[in-house]
Specification:
Helices cover 22% and strands 23% of the residues. It has 11 helices and 18 strands. It has helices spanning 22-31, 81-90, 106-111, 150-153, 187-191, 193-197, 290-297, 301-307, 342-356, 381-391, 400-406, and strands spanning 15-17, 35-38, 53-56, 65-66, 73-76, 93-94, 128-134, 140-144, 162-168, 171-172, 175-185, 202-207, 213-221, 258-259, 279-286, 308-316, 331-338, 362-363. The strands form 4 sheets. An 8-stranded antiparallel sheet has the order 14-11-13-12-16-17-15-18. It has a 5-stranded antiparallel sheet with strand order 4-5-9-7-8. A 3-stranded parallel sheet has the order 1-3-2, covered by helices on one side. A hairpin with a 5-residue loop joins strand 12 (202-207) and strand 13. GO terms for molecular function: D-arabinono-1,4-lactone oxidase activity; FAD binding; L-gulono-1,4-lactone dehydrogenase activity. Residues 9-173 form the FAD-binding PCMH-type domain. Keywords: Oxidoreductase. This is Xylitol oxidase.
Length: 407
């Protein structure tokens, strides 16, 4: 049976299918009682699981097609972002953002609200123009931006059907310079947070919450990089955010310009992106609450440090997608890469959530979190429930976890 990427969840499905055509996938969906789509298995929970049929999208055709009239690109939902980016750059086009990992599937990343970083840059889902979905009876439907169901159909956790094709916004290709600045005072987070996150097109702060320093700041710029960041000059050698990890896996740094798809992710497509033994959590905070949230986390620092590999702080612009963690407000993502110790991590998560959720934080749908009552933080949840009841009245695309989370 299949395991997820981190090896912490074994899928309980009675059957796993790997269709090689959309037509085959339609027949499989129509004939099954319960179905969940399976992408690159990068979720850290059973959110993609089902007691019925797991339908892998990995072998569906990529069929990348660029619309020369409007510049959009349509790709198979199971395609990896990194593969799409390379092909798209060959057409002279680019995406506005990419996640840390280029290894994740387009449909899976979009469905869970996955993101990159940038004060004025939305999540991956914010760049979606249309989704093609297999419904419970096996028929295909396409939902386009501007249509009534669109805002509920992009970040949908796979509960509205199996996404077979996704249409994305693009722009002309561009180059990016990346540099890493090490060992900045933590006090800058309190006094100059906006200046830190606004210092480049994409900014990541790596911290451990325990000390008085920001361990690393990764800047990705579409123009020139600053000569220094609050008096700190960029590292003159490649840097990994995990101490002692091989730097061959990280994308080019030291201010050397390169294609957008070779700089916006943290990791190269051809490399395994981590040490392979980890869990991940992330909470997306309203930007207005960021200082109160950080103050609430600092007393937990000793406990966090005991199971932490590294924590990353990023920003994401607001969108209007009903189940997006960035719905209606600019957010700050506080990401935790944990050691792979399920018991100790899940013993800590309720205390982190007690600090963050009352401030409006929303957990990343695809990562580890303990809360089950998260629906109230999504103002359009009632509208989503109504959409789901209309599109999938028997709950074919649900499972116990998503049914609990969505209410």
């Amino acid at each position: 049976m299949e395991w997820n990427w981190a090896g912490n969840h074994r899928y309980a499905a009675a059957r796993v299918a790997r269709p090689t055509s959309v037509g085959e996938a339609q027949d499989l969906v129509a004939s099954a009682d319960r179905v969940r789509a399976l992408g690159t298995r990068h979720s850290f929970s059973g959110i993609a699981d089902t007691p019925g049929l797991l339908l892998s999208t990995a072998d569906l055709p990529v069929d990348l097609a660029v619309d020369e009239a409007d510049g959009s690109v349509t790709v198979g939902g199971g395609a990896r972002y990194g593969d799409v980016a390379v092909a798209l750059d060959g057409h002279g086009r680019a995406l506005a953002t990419m996640a840390s990992l280029p290894h994740i599937s387009v449909a899976g990343a979009v469905a869970t609200g996955t993101h990159g970083s940038g004060d004025r840059t939305g999540s991956l889902a914010a760049g979606v123009r249309a989704v093609e979905v297999i419904g419970p009876d096996g028929t295909l439907r396409t939902v386009r931006r501007g249509e009534p169901d669109f805002a509920g159909s992009v970040v949908a956790l796979g509960t509205l059907g199996v996404v077979t094709r996704v249409t994305l916004d693009t722009e002309p290709s561009y180059v990016v310079r990346q540099a890493v600045y090490r060992d900045l005072p933590w006090s800058l987070v309190d006094t100059d947070f906006d200046a830190l996150t606004g210092a480049a097109y994409s900014v990541s702060l790596f911290v451990d919450w325990a000390g008085d320093r920001i361990a690393q700041v990764w800047l990705k710029s579409r123009t020139d990089l600053p000569a220094d960041l609050f008096g700190v000059v960029a590292a003159d050698e490649p840097v990994h955010m995990l101490a002692g990890a091989p730097t061959a896996a990280v994308t080019g740094q030291q201010g050397v310009s390169g294609p957008w798809h070779e700089r916006l992710p943290h990791f190269k497509l051809a490399f395994t992106p981590s040490r392979g033994e980890e869990l991940q959590s992330e909470y997306l905070l309203p930007r207005a609450a960021v200082h109160e949230a950080f103050a609430a986390l600092r007393p937990l620092a000793p406990r966090i440090a005991s199971v932490l590999q590294i924590s990353e702080i990023r920003t994401v612009a607001a969108d209007d997608l009903w189940l997006s963690p960035a719905y209606g407000t600019d957010v700050v993502g506080v990401h935790f890469t944990w050691v792979k110790d399920i018991e100790r991590v899940f013993a800590l998560l309720p205390d982190i959530e007690a600090a963050l959720l009352p401030l409006g934080a929303r957990p990343h749908w695809g990562k580890c979190f303990a809360a089950t009552e998260v629906a109230a933080s999504y103002p359009r949840m009632a509208d989503f429930r109504a959409l789901r009841a209309r599109v999938d009245p028997t709950g074919k695309f649900g499972n116990d976890l998503v049914d609990t989370l969505l209410g």
